[in-house]
């Protein structure tokens, strides 16, 4: 743990080096690419299946229940993930985290083809145990590996791979089901491709550099290790969760991630098979563009962090409010009319558009959550703990979301109503934290001095504590 104060990122009085020699296979770009490929193979393909609407099933209720089980177990595995890092390191934790995804895809395959339900639930359980560790590990790596001026772009680049899985799933499904203009389940052939891709995740993870091997352009070493005993880690993680600065972000995390089950269930309930495939393809492309634009803006060095943080926050608030208003009007009408929209149907455009925009909103919210965590952590050990807390809190909200959306009335209208209300109540607590980002005297980190300098990047204005060498 930290026994002296030393900034991870350069302060105003330090010269920031950006041309430190690096080998391509040790660079942050290389490592973010490997991390992205792991993301593509594991949660990316999971997202591809989910983006088909209810995992490609004719009814969303079993798959929503399975996803609720997955996220419940992820809450537990996220919480204890820093203990696992103590024993096998951050790279080992990432590889371990990829193992459980393929069994879940196999469960969806057998359910789709043979009607088997138990393997869907068993696969969901295995996925939950490993995925919580994966979520923590990838978040910590994505925050800690890149140089400060590249953090936003690196996050956007990394998250692009997750959406690439969704786009691939949509493209495959669109090719196989382009003539199916009615409601129903997708072709089981799709899942064979998904199983193979998810099984490749652990192999891809072997190519990631350990933190000590990473070479950054600023010459700084990456230290992502847990050296204290496991009980100390559990106590520290619990302590961070109970702090004001994290508790005030819990509702904001909730409004961001609760939406996933809501809009994918919306897609499954009200659209034909080929329209669902088109939805996963188009929404993925739009979300990639929006996420990378936000990442580049958050890195823009000529605008102060305070302005970048506040303008991004209020843009997200306004857009989300508009989209939830739109969705509320639609689902209230659909509850009575019970439509099935195909791309040839009248009214398809206005009903389909809100799904695309909510998917894009999920992506920019997701990236912005990492911006929050980057500005909360005071040491690289805290990055691991905050990453675990972020992903565990996400999992808890998503478990609640998928569980509730397995109830018919909630899936039809209640999910949209609840998420709209959650958005409204989350704004003030999140603002109480965010308004201090980039200010001279931050109440968030009393032991740190927040400064501005010409080379700042995503969250680069804060000093941090690091452990003695």
UniProtKB/TrEMBL annotation:
Signal peptide: none
Alphabetical keyword list: Membrane, Transmembrane, Transmembrane helix
Membrane topology recorded in Swiss-Prot or TrEMBL: Multi-pass membrane protein
Domain of life where this protein originates: Eukaryota
Presence of keyword Disulfide bond: no
Location relative to the cell: Membrane
Parts of the chain that traverse the membrane: 28-49, 61-80, 87-106, 118-143, 155-176, 188-208, 246-271, 277-300, 312-332, 352-373
A Pfam family recorded for this sequence: UNC-93
Designated name of the protein: Major facilitator superfamily domain-containing protein
């Amino acid at each position: 743990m930290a026994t002296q104060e030393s900034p991870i990122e350069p302060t105003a009085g330090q010269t920031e080096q950006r041309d430190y020699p690096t080998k391509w296979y040790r660079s942050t770009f290389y490592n973010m690419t490997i991390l992205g490929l792991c993301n593509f193979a594991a949660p990316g393909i999971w997202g591809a299946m989910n983006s088909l609407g209810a995992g490609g099933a004719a009814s969303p209720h079993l798959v929503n229940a399975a996803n609720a089980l997955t996220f419940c177990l992820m809450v537990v595995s996220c919480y204890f993930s820093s203990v696992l890092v103590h024993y096998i390191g951050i790279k080992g934790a990432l590889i371990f985290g990829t193992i459980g995804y393929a069994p879940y895809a196999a469960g969806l395959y057998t359910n789709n083809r043979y009607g088997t339900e138990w393997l869907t639930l068993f696969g969901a359980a295995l996925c939950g145990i490993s995925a919580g560790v994966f979520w923590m590990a990838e978040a910590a790596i994505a925050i800690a590996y890149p140089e400060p001026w590249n953090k936003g772009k690196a996050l956007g680049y990394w998250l692009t791979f997750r959406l690439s899985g969704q786009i691939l799933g949509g493209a495959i499904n669109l090719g196989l089901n382009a003539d199916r203009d009615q409601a129903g389940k997708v072709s089981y052939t799709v899942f064979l491709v998904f199983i193979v891709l998810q099984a490749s995740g652990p192999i891809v993870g072997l190519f990631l550099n350990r933190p000590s091997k990473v070479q950054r352009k600023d010459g700084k070493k990456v230290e992502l290790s847990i050296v204290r005993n496991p009980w100390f880690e559990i106590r520290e993680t619990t302590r961070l969760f109970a702090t004001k600065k994290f508790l005030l972000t819990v509702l904001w995390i909730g409004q961001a991630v609760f939406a996933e089950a809501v809009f994918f269930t919306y897609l499954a309930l009200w659209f034909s098979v080929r329209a669902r495939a088109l939805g996963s393809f188009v929404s993925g492309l739009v979300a990639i563009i929006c996420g990378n634009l936000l990442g580049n803006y958050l890195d823009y060095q000529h605008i102060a962090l305070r302005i970048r943080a506040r303008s991004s926050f209020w843009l997200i608030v306004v857009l989300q409010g508009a989209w939830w208003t739109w969705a509320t009007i639609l689902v209230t009408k659909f509850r009575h009319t019970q439509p099935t929209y195909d791309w040839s149907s009248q009214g398809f455009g206005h009903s389909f558009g809100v799904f695309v925009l909510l998917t894009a909103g999920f992506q920019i919210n997701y990236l912005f959550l990492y911006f929050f965590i980057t500005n909360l952590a005071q040491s690289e050990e805290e990055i691991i703990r905050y990453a675990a807390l972020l992903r565990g809190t996400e999992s808890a909200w998503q478990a609640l979301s998928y569980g509730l959306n397995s109830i018919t009335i909630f899936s039809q209208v209640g999910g949209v109503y609840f998420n709209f209300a959650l958005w409204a109540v989350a704004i003030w607590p999140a603002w109480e934290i965010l308004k201090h980002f980039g200010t001279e005297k931050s109440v968030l980190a009393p032991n740190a001095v927040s400064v501005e300098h010409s080379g700042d990047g995503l969250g680069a204005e804060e000093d941090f504590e690091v452990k003695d060498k």
